[in-house]
Amino acid sequence: MLNVEFLGKEEKEEGKGIRVNGVLDKKAEYSLGWDPSSTFYSRQVITLLLEYSFEELGRFFEYLHFELDLSDGVFNSPRSAIITRGGEEGNDNREDEYAITFPIVFEADHWAKPWSIFEFSQVFEAEVEKLVLNSHYYQYDEDNIKDGIEIQFTFCKNEVTGKCVDSVIGNLLSAWNTTEEILQSKLDKDKLITYFHFPSSVKTACKQYLIYFTQFLSDLGIEAETEIEEKEGTTMLKVIPENKEEALSHIREALAVYLAIPGSQEFGELSKNMHDIALAQLRANVLHLQSQWEMAKALLQMKDATIGQLQLCNYQYKQLLDGHAVTPKDAEEEDLIEGVLTVTKYKGDAFTINLPEILRKIKRKLK
Question: 265 and 134, same structural domain?
Fold first, then answer.
């Protein structure tokens, strides 16, 4: 049962110091007037409060403000959250709902992005609207985005506050990251950008395999440069074709083939009887990745479900092509490279590859 004690409330309605289940937050501020409100700063006390439902918190607080601990560094704000009783105005079920509001202030003097705050806010609002949560986006000043925004999420009164806060933060971070990725893709219209979430135990080996993609393209007659960057646990692969007339869709198709090869059971059998130098180099890179994969499985004793079948496309969570996000789930069955690759709806094995044909194409390029 939640127990809250406001220090000094006998003398005045406003003050500092709130004890929650015996744990004191000396800096906490409270006002016990018409709309009781409190602001907390102690991480220990905040953690205690978030273990309770909105309804339990509502016994003591109409308005609850607390600091956030966002150590991931994805964005500078929000750094705080506000919990209030009642959902969006006009909703008949307001009294049975609680809202979590996140204020976000854009620091114009420290804005170092290649896009404007206005451009960012436009895309960010669209991404927030896509969230499965019941969310509402507000701009403080319609004419000046620099004054900041706030995003409100509504929940039922019996839900656990901490779980809802974690869900909201995760969704906000996802929307923020997606916004930056979309804006980055607009700057890189002549580049293919793909993002991956690799298991940490095989991330190094997977990144090494991605590096060889440049040579794989060259063997197919496509000259390009590749860049690999690591940010917040996400691996970004950027491919820049040497010939700007080269269709990025061709590179995307080649990447789909390349990612599927290590998980193909027939690749080793087909390639071992081909003695072309291009195939030998490709096979060496595939074998290295497969060996690292097997080692990771052995070390983890199969406890990590993500280290299952070696299919790199399973870890490809977003691809940006000409400013649009493309995922395997978006694709109906179609031939991407005639006679070589077919992509089906994303269910388990996403790719059907005519390996003999792709291997022959590589071989012919070197003749």
Answer: no
Per the document, the length of the chain is 367
Q: In Å, what is the CA distance from 162 to each residue of 53, 155, 249, 256, 314?
A: 8, 12, 43, 40, 30
Q: 86-111 burial by CB neighbour count: b if 16+ within 10 A, else e? A: bbeeeeeeeeebbbbbbbbebeeeee
- Among 202, 185, 289, 176, which Cα is nearest to 238's? 185
Cβ–Cβ under 8 Å, residues 365 and 219 = yes
Domain match, 206 and 348 both: yes
Q: What pLDDT, in 10s, does the model give residues 184-239?
A: 877 767 788 887 888 788 888 889 999 999 999 888 888 888 889 887 677 888 88
Domain for residue 37, yes or no? no
Q: Distance between CA atoms of 37 and 354, rounded to whole angstroms?
A: 65
Q: Using one digit for the tens of pLDDT, what is the confidence trace for 45-60?
A: 999 999 999 999 988 8
How many domains, in total, are found in the chain? 2
> Do 209 and 295 fall into the same domain?
yes
Q: Does residue 201 sit in the same domain as residue 125?
A: no
Residue at 41 is within a domain: no
Domain stops at, among 156, 186, 216:
186
What would the DSSP string read from start to end of 98-154? EEEEEEE---GGG---SS-HHHHHHHHHHHHHT-SS-EEEEES-TT-GGG-EEEEEE
Residue 100 contacts residue 82 (beta carbons within 8 Å): yes
Together in a domain, 250 and 133: no
Last residue of a domain, one of 130, 158, 186: 186
pLDDT (tens digit per residue) in 88-97: 544 445 567 8
33-44 residue pLDDT tens: 777 789 999 999
Contact in structure between 25 and 11 (CB atoms under 8 Å): no
